[in-house]
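WARN no homologs supplied; continuing
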Amino acid sequence: MAQPLAVASRVESLASSGIASIPKEYVRPQEELISIVDVFEDEKKIDEGPQIPTVDLKSLNSEDPAEREKCREELKKAAMEWGVMHLVNHGISDDLIERVKAAGKTFFDLPIEEKEKYANDQASGKIAGYGSKLANNASGQLEWEDYFFHLIYPEGKRDLSMWPKTPADYTEVTSEYARQLRSLATRVFSALSLGLGLEEGRLEKEVGGVEELLMQMKINYYPKCPQPDLALGVEAHTDVSSLTFILHNMVPGLQAFQDGKWVTAKCVPNSIIMHIGDTVEILSNGKYKSILHRGLVNKEKVRISWAVFCEPPKEKIILKPLPELVTETEPARYPPRTFAQHIQYKLFRKTQEGALLTK
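OK structure emitted
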């Protein structure tokens, strides 16, 4: 009897098996290989060329209107020009962030058979839990990562039975981080709304508000790779979310595609990386940018990242450019779709692209 794919295909198992070359399913197409670089060498060169911006949020709630405005303008500029940024002075304590990272690392340090107790079942639509990428395009391409995926907010919609029991403080620290991140998301949505000339609560309301906006956490575990020049941890994509907030273990890997080049994100201490997602790009009629990005791997260090996707409800809201941002000279750039329809549209496009690659 064939071994179930979920157990057979953990990347961590492959990485620790002593292989010198990676299976062909992990080797990227030739047109991608030419742009894959040594991430440590590339990070050393980061003073050359454009850099992912750092936005200091210290003055976002300042009592001085001029300071507040200056901070909002910086956030707006980064959202329009890049769609990705390092947030510093974001209001979430270094101690809490370190505890979140320690909890996730402790889970991934468990033996694989322990982690398998939390395995998801993608075939039946159960995506929460411990998993690995299954090929979802015609080229059968795989990514060099395992992950743990779960909804972390609102608290009433969580399924704590699927959350790791080890370490013992996993639920406590992840729940507190979710609450504080939810508050940060509100502050960012407010600033981005004002940047578009809207009422400050508008964008948050359009993505579900306090009741309906979902926060999904995906802990990405990228094992050491014997041939990092041939693989990707995460292939190039834009996030479907409204906003995505990312922590990492200070091992470089994230790249953003800007002005025709892949730019390696530097490791900024005590920062949270934030992406503008497709949802906010659509609502802003393209004024804010959902940037193409990917994850590199390396042969020296395990990389772990904690991505939290702020998502609208799948069916309840029709996503389309806000009427105030649509004019004769700037017509709507995106057709109306539910969030679920947008996800399906992207999967369909990806499948088509994969089919073309295999012809």
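The chain has one domain: 28-358.
OK
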